[in-house]
Amino acid sequence: GVCASLTTKPIVGIPVKAKTLDGLDSLLSTAQMPPGIPVATVGINAGKNAGLLAVQILATSDKDLTNKLIAYKKKMADEIEAKGEKLLKVGYKKYLENK
Questions:
Q1: CB under 8 Å to 57, separation ≥6 — which residues?
Q2: How far apart are CA 44 and CA 3, in angstroms?
Q3: In this predicted structure, what is the pLDDT of residue 20?
Q4: 40 in Cβ contact with 13 (< 8 Å)
Q5: Over the stretch 57-68, which tens digit does the pLDDT of each residue have?
């Protein structure tokens, strides 16, 4: 929040799970910013999503980055399909054993 108040650049907040409140306090401190201080907030401990959001923002003006992002998302979709096929083939018990 402090960073967002001091810049005009986009800020992505990454709430971190702390010892108390399981990160809910961190989530609220980034999501509940006052009017005029926007912060894009991802889930608790979701640094990967924060990185992907930053790439998506940058890709709006970078065609090469857009193409890399499309390829990355296609790869993720292919991996999920393969996992689904394996799950159907071996059943959930064996799938979880060999994960």
A1: 10
A2: 19
A3: 84
A4: yes
A5: 999 999 999 999
Residue 72 has pLDDT above 90, yes or no: yes
3-state SS track over the chain? CHHHHCCCCCCEECCCCCCCHHHHHHHHHHHCCCCCCCCEECCCCCHHHHHHHHHHHHHCCCHHHHHHHHHHHHHHHHHHHHHHHHHHHHCHHHHHHCC
User: How sure is the predictor about 18, in pLDDT bands with cuts at 50, 70 and 90?
Assistant: confident
92: its two tokens: 């959930």
Q: CA Rg, the chain, in Å?
A: 18
The pLDDT value given to residue 84: 96
CA pair distance 92, 43, nearest whole angstrom? 27
The amino acid at residue 25 is D
